[in-house]
């Protein structure tokens, strides 16, 4: 009976360790959390809710894509400044990220009814990029700490403030913490190692094994 228990512990431990290693490697989550907001009628701007940029990682990469040949603007501003600049302009607000992290989806709301001024003429931007067709901007979210008390920062994508905003806005974060690895991976490896060790000790100390060795 003791021998059976030892072998059971050994096999179960090895199985747990292999399963945990698989969760940490083969079935590990993606290195980045990517979410894209696509809307046929996004209004004149697409803007993130305060705090969303700090979802994960040391920075967030924002890519806005419009029609070929269309001017595209992406800027980062304090939330209060962006809200004041937008006023009643129609916009899509990305309020959060829902679904499983392996296939996340943006949660949004559309508000406002009017147009906005040309964002390229505003002086509220902490960082901005302009281009044609597609524009990418990387913002270091680690620098947002001092601005949290002031309501945080947001990113805004637009064209000229009157034409529709870029039809696709992608937010990409480097996965960190629980988003970067399967939560059961390490516990399975540790538990499997302990069980396998106990089983191996039991097999080596089995009286029948030692008796057979003595007769030899």
TrEMBL record:
Keywords linked to the UniProt accession: Membrane, Signal, Transmembrane, Transmembrane helix
Keyword Signal: yes
Sequence intervals crossing the membrane: 184-205
Signal peptide per UniProt: 1-21
Protein name: Uncharacterized protein
Source organism per UniProt: Kineococcus rhizosphaerae
